[in-house]
Amino acid sequence: MERRAGELMMTKADHLTLLADIGGTNTRVALAQGTDMLPETIKRYANAGRDALEDILSDYMTAQNVQDLAGACVAAAGPVRDDVATMTNLSWVIKAENIARVTKAEQVFVLNDLQAQGHALGYLAPDAVREIVPGQPARADAARLVVGVGTGFNAAPVHEGPGGRVVPPSEAGHITLPCQSDEDFELKRYLEAKHEFASVEHVVSGRGIERVYAYMQGQDEATVSGADILAAISRGDVTARAAGEMFVQAMGRVVGDLALTHLPFGGIYLVGGAARGVVPWLEEFGFSAAMHDKGRFSDFLQAFPVFVIEDDYAALHGCAAFCQSRIDAQEL
């Protein structure tokens, strides 16, 4: 049964943890008790007009009337090093020490957003995870791979070990865009003329499908939103469908490359709004065919099932799980 916000004080504040999922546009904040994220505490804040994450966290804690937390864990859409995150699409630098000062949390952790998604596996409702490409059965401790296709692109492997779960960070969206066909290379040259370098994220992301559509239209700048492109695909628009097919096949190639790099026999998990948006057309547009098209390793890739995560708050669940695991480790 859900608790009202006013009832949170029945739980000692120092038994609660604070969670935050920081995107380029919005920040979601919630509280957790142990590994259980408390849905009634979720708040969404627009980042526009805010100088720093600390402004949002201060407002949130005042609204929830909590302080002296057991821990805090934030997931940032950008590279993280030594407890400092630099946002990729937002001029914020997030430091653990600043979060500790605002929240009075006893322990503070800063993760990349895909790390948080990896830590969410096993903590999501069964109906929040849907298989879209079948694979073969695997051991419970088999490696898994989380692939985020939203505003940007990233991926993170998930490993289970004797000391607990390990989810190494990466910046996979900024590797070189893989090309096979003449049209792929033409798109690459189009992107290089604008950005000097053509990365995976330039195509396989929410902004990426907008760039692909602009390329198909012969335009220099993307002026049609991803949502409008998906709507046009639904209507049968020829150009939109061609852009969608190119986007989906590029995503399939990249996922296949990452699968061979990490061998996720436990499954590949797609997250993010852009990935969910094209799920209805994945098979029609050739996702699995592109993913499996790896020469003599094509049959080998059939082992890896692909799932889509349909929980917008998965990263918050992952923050809760990670934070509690570190608190428990400190108490041993």
TrEMBL record:
Origin: domain of life: Bacteria
Record keyword 4Fe-4S present: no
GO terms classed as biological process: glycolytic process
Alphabetized InterPro entries for the sequence: ATPase_NBD, Bacterial_glucokinase, Glucokinase
Gene3D superfamilies in the cross-refs: 3.30.420.40, 3.40.367.20
Kinase listed as a keyword: yes
CDD domains linked: ASKHA_NBD_GLK
Keyword list, A-Z: Kinase, Transferase
Record GO cellular component, one term: cytosol
UniProt GO molecular function: ATP binding; D-glucose binding; glucokinase activity
Family the UniProt entry places it in: Belongs to the bacterial glucokinase family.
Protein name as catalogued: Glucokinase
Species per Swiss-Prot/TrEMBL record: Thioclava indica
